[in-house]
């Protein structure tokens, strides 16, 4: 397992006057970046 740190997941444009980035903690397991059960934070 290799910890890649926080990575950008998406940008939340639900409020155009307050656009927020969303991040997730990325880990590589045997060369695979699995996003199925990832926790996304604003």
List keywords for this structure.
42 residues; 4-stranded antiparallel sheet; 4 strands
Approximately how much helix is present in the residues?
under 10%
Q: What's the end-to-end separation, in Å?
A: 25 Å
Number of strands: 4
Report the sheet-strand fraction: over 45%
List SSEs in N-to-C order: EEEE
What's the overall average pLDDT, rounded? Answer: 95
Shape: elongated
Per DSSP, the total helix count is 0
Alpha-beta classification: mainly beta
Indicate how many domains the architecture comprises: 1
The rounded Rg comes to 12 Å
Model regions low in confidence, pLDDT < 50 over at least 5 residues: none
Major β-sheet profile: 4 strands, antiparallel
In short:
This protein is 0% helix and 60% strand.
What does this structure look like?
This protein is 0% helix and 60% strand. It is mainly β and 42 residues long. The chain has one domain. Strands 1, 2, 3 and 4 form a four-stranded antiparallel β-sheet that branches. Strand 2 (20-29) and strand 3 form a beta hairpin. The protein is elongated and about 40 Å long. The two termini are 25 Å apart. The model has no long low-confidence stretch (mean pLDDT 95).
């Amino acid at each position: 397992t290799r910890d890649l740190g926080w990575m950008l997941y998406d940008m939340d444009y639900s409020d155009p006057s307050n656009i927020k980035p969303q991040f997730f903690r990325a880990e590589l397991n045997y060369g695979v970046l699995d996003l199925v059960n990832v926790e996304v934070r604003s």
